[in-house]
Every structure is written in structure tokens, then in C-alpha cells.
Known about the structure:
Layout: E1 7-12, H1 16-28, E2 33-39, H2 43-53, E3 58-59, H3 62-67, E4 74-77, H4 84-93, E5 97-100, H5 108-121, E6 125-127, H6 135-144, E7 149-159, H7 161-165, H8 180-198, H9 200-203, H10 209-231, E8 236-242, E9 253-259, E10 262-271, E11 276-284, E12 287-293, E13 304-310, E14 316-321, H11 328-341, H12 350-365
Parallel strand pairs: 1-2, 1-4, 2-3, 4-5, 5-6, 7-10
Antiparallel strand pairs: 7-11, 8-9, 9-10, 11-12, 12-13, 13-14
GO molecular function: nucleotide binding; oxidoreductase activity
InterPro entries: Gfo/Idh/MocA-like_OxRdtase_N, NAD(P)-bd_dom_sf
Domain Gfo/Idh/MocA-like oxidoreductase N-terminal: 7-129
Amino acid sequence: MSPNRILNVAILGCGEVAQVAHIPNLIVASDKFKITALCDISVQSVELCGKRFGIESRFTSVTDMLSSSTLIDLVFVLTADQYHAEHVVQCANAGKHVMIEKPMAQTLAEYDMVEEARVKSGVVIFVGYMRRYAPALERLKEEIKGKEIKYVRVRDIIGNNRYFTSQSGMNQSYFTDFPASATSDLNQRRHDNLIDNLGESRAFADDRNMHSWSLLHSLGSHDLSAMRDVLGMPEKCLMATRSDDGRGESWWWTALFQYKGFKAYYEMAIDEVAVFDAQIEVYTNDSRVKIQYDTPYVKGLPIKLIIQRQLPSGDYSEQIIRPTYVDPYTIELPLIYDAIVNATEYKTTPSDAKNDTILVKMIMDALVD
């Protein structure tokens, strides 16, 4: 490809994250991207995005979109989690590069299927772990490099997400004009995936398992993948606990991971307090280094690095570093472009993403109710 080429992009899934983040960001990045097609099973969603953003080619079928004459180099797959792997493979087999929202897949077999399609088709499949591309994360890794880690705290406790998205300024809309068969098919996929991941005897032994897997695999993937980026994979999960709200849901999670020489404590939940409390804090003998994430849905909120340490003089020091005010969704875009146009290596590959499902299986296997 020419280094100055503009990539033609199709948006597959026109829901919240498309309306709030991906479509507006791609339009602003018009020196590298042009949205040429929209696709969603909701006609109302497609029509809203098409009219609002001036995109003429609109589809309700992935197959129809990929077989059309519309110019498409890259597909942003933003559909329901249970369809991610299938849609990625469809696009890869059609010779299209893919940016896929996390989680990339639902089962280990699906990850292998995606990787096989990537190798066979020779396309880029870029998994959208936007937090891992925050400059503050790289600064954290530099700060702790060579130091003996004593303890780590990983936290993802956020208020109801629509509190933040409603203040994004994008006036998004939500529609439910799905075919009846779509809901039943989605539920069947969730059912079958849970059996694949936990085994038939365990999958439905507890009413909370379905919700537990979904929450850990979606919201949990943000900090679990960032934890892996900073620390690597843990040796094992020593124990995990979840709340019991009496409705078959488990919103509050804790887990303890064993690393060589230290432990990492993980907390994850959704509540109704309007605070986006997502962070990773690494403790060494003489410092505490913390990355603090704010919601990416409200632009201009910086991802901060906070360093607390004891100086050689004996003085206590606290430093707050804001490498950039650019949101991580925007930071991802030139990296996706370079991976496709310049064959630049990238870290959020399908093989890397597979480790999140392995981690979730670790947590479920270590569960103590």
C-alpha cells in the first residue's frame, strides 16, 4: 500500500461505542480513514448513523456488505461479543483487515479459528485494548523496570457506563428493532459458550455463572489485559470471590493472582456512583507507581501516572504525570493504520487476546463462594 493511502472503513455494529467513539474519531482522522459502509441488524441504528454522519452505503447483512461493490479495506467489528469471532473470520476470509472490540472471542477454540483465518488471509486483526496504548502505561512500565515488585493492586470499579456516555456530547440513540430470531440466537450462543468454557457439569451449577463469565470477559478484559501488559501472565489464581445479589448476578469480584515473588489483588465491579475508578498500582520497596484511567467516553480527561516515593534525602515525593490529553481510542488509530499500511508490529494480536480467556478460566476455577 502507498504510505499516503486513505483506508476505506466499514463499521459493523452501529451501537453505543460506534456512535460515541469510533465513527466520530474516524471522521476526524480523515487523512488516514474514510468510512464507506455501515452495517447493523437494526435498521434504525444504520439509518441514524448514516444520516448523522453522511454515510450512504448501509447494510443489515454482513454477507451482503462484504459481497457488495463498496470499497472496504478495514472493518471495525463492534457487534455483540458472542458474534465477534464469526464476524472477524468472515471479514478476514473476504480479505479485509479488522479492528475488533474486546473481547475478541468467547472460547479458546474461537481464538484459534480467528488466528487460522488471519494467517490464511494475511490480514491485520487488531484487538482494541485501547487502555494498553495509553502513553501513561508505557511510562509506568519504564518506572518499575528492574525494580523488585512487592505487591500490585488492580482495580476496575466504575459507575453505570451510561452516566459517562450520556455526557460524551454525541447524543447517541439506542434501538431494539432486532429480529426475534436474533435474541434467541444470542441466548443460545451464550449458553453454548458457557458449556465450552466451564464444561457441562459446571456451567449451570450456579445461576450466577452466565453473568459472571460475561462480566469478567467484557469489563474485566480492560484491566486484565493491561495487567498482563505490565506484569505478564500470573502463575495461577489463588482464589476468587463474587457477590450474591439474589438475582443470579454477581457484580462485585475479587481475585488474587500469584506471580513470581509477589501477588496481585484484583477488584472489579459496577455500581451507581459516578466515579470511573480504574487503576493499576505497583508497590516496590521505595515507590508506589499508579496509572489512573478516566472514562474514554468524555474527551480531554487525561490518563495519569502517579508516583509516590522516598527520596535519597529522606523526603517524601508525590509526582503526577499527564503524558497527553488525547483519549486512547484516538491514540489507537494511527497504530492500526501503520499496522496495515506499513506492516508495523502491534501487541494486541489474536494470540495475545487469547490470554484473557485463559485468565477468566483461572478466576472461575479458583472461585470460592
